[in-house]
Amino acid sequence: MIQPSTAATTEPVEESRYGGFTRFELELEFVQSLANPFYLNHLASQKLLQDPSFVEYLKYLQYFTKPEYVKYLSYPGPTLKALELLQQERFRRDILSPDVVKRLVEETVVASVKNR
To answer: What pTM did the predictor assign?
Structure first.
C-alpha cells in the first residue's frame, strides 16, 4: 500500500493558473461580463445559450449569489439579475431580440441613476 508523503501534507497547495489567472479570477471576470446586455445578445447569437453544457456552467456560476462571493462583484445588482435571468430558457431565447436588449440597457441605466 502506498503511503502519502509527509511533504505533500505540509506544503501549501498551489492553485492551478490559466494564462496567469486562477479559475476564480476567470470566473469572476466572466460572470461580471454577464451584466452587459449586448454581451448576452452576442452569446445568444453564437448559440451558446442553447448549449446544454454552457447552461450547466451558468447554473454552476450561481455560487456568486452567496454573500462570501457577492463581495467580489463590482456591479452586483446587474450581474446577479443577469445570472438569474439566464437560468430561464425563455430569457435565453428572448435575449436575441434587440428590443429585449434595449429594455435591459434602459433598466440598468435607470437603476444606476436611482442608486447614486
So the answer is: 0.81
